[in-house]
Amino acid sequence: MKKAHFVLQKKGGVGKSVTANWLAQYLLSQGELLEVIDTDPSNATLSGFKALKAQHIQLMEGTVLKEAKFDLLMNRVLQEDSSFLIDCGASSFIPLNNYMIENGVVDMIKESGKEVYAHIVIAGESHLMDTLSGFAEMVEQMPEQVKLIVWLNEFFGKIEADGKPFEEMNIYLENEHRIHAVVGVPKYSEMFSADIEKMLKSKLTFDEVRQSPEFFIMNKSRVFRVQQEIYRQLGTVL
Q1: Backbone angles phi, psi at 138, to 5 degrees
Q2: Which alpha helices (DSSP H) does the chain contain, by range?
Q3: Degrees (nearest 5) of the Cα angle 99, 105, 106?
Q4: 220 and 209 in contact (C-beta within 8 Å)?
C-alpha cells in the first residue's frame, strides 16, 4: 500500500529535516516509489540532497499559507500512484494543520488508498517542553486513523522530565494508544557526531558516503552503524 508521510513539529531546529532525510533514504532503499517534497519556507534543507530528488514547494508567503499551492500538492498526493514524504516547515505547522483539518485531508488520502503517517520529533534539554507541546497538539488534532511515529532525538540531551524518560511521562501514558511506534535517535559520541555532521553538511546520503573519498574506512564504518540502527528500527514499524 502506498503511503503519505508528513514530518511535522512546530519547534524549529530540533532535527526534523534530518528525520525526513533518513526516513526518505530508508523508504527509497526498500524500493519504495517515493516523491520527496520539501515545503520549509526558510530552511529548504532536504532539497539540498540531490540524491533524494526532493522538490521544494513554497507553500507560504510570509506567515500566510497559500492554499492554492497546497491544493495542487494534495492533488498530486491523491492522484499519483506513488508514496509521498512531505517535510513541513515549523512556520507552516499551525496553518498546515488547520488546512488539513478543515479540508478533511486525512480522510481523502485514506479514501485514495494510501496510509497516512505523521512523524513527530521530540528533542531533549531546552527543546523538550516545546516539542512535547507540539506532540500534544498533533495527538489532539490528527484523526485516529493517522499512524503517529515519535522520533526521540537526544542530540541536544536526554529526553527526561522529572527524571522520567518519555515512555514514563504522563503525556505518553495518556496517549500511548495513539502512538504507532517510537524511533530512538541517541546522542552519539564525539567521533560519530563529527562523521554524521560532515555527512549532513556535505549533503550526502548514507550510500554516497560509502563511495566518497572524503571519508576514510573508520568514518564510513561509524556512519554505517548509525544507518543500520535507524533502518533496523524503521524496518519494524513501516
Answers
A1: -65, -45
A2: 16-29, 67-79, 93-102, 105-111, 128-141, 170-175, 190-201, 206-211, 217-235
A3: 125
A4: yes
3-state secondary structure of 28: helix
Q: How far does the chain reach from its first CA to its final CA, in angstroms?
A: 11
Are the C-beta atoms of 43 and 16 separated by less than 8 Å?
no
Residue type, 50: K
- 73/86 Cα distance (integer angstroms): 10
Say how far apart CA 37 and CA 85 lie, in whole Å: 6
In the chain, ranges of CATH 3.40.50.300 domains: 3-187
Higher pLDDT, 63 or 134: 134
Short-list 202, 210, 215, CA closest to 50: 202
**3-187 belongs to which homologous superfamily?**
P-loop containing nucleotide triphosphate hydrolases (3.40.50.300)
pLDDT in tens, 41-60: 767 789 899 999 999 988 87
The whole-angstrom separation of Cα 144 and Cα 159 is 26
Read off the pTM.
Answer: 0.96
Question: With 80 as the cut, is the pLDDT of residue 31 above it?
Answer: yes
- Amino acid letter, residue 52: L
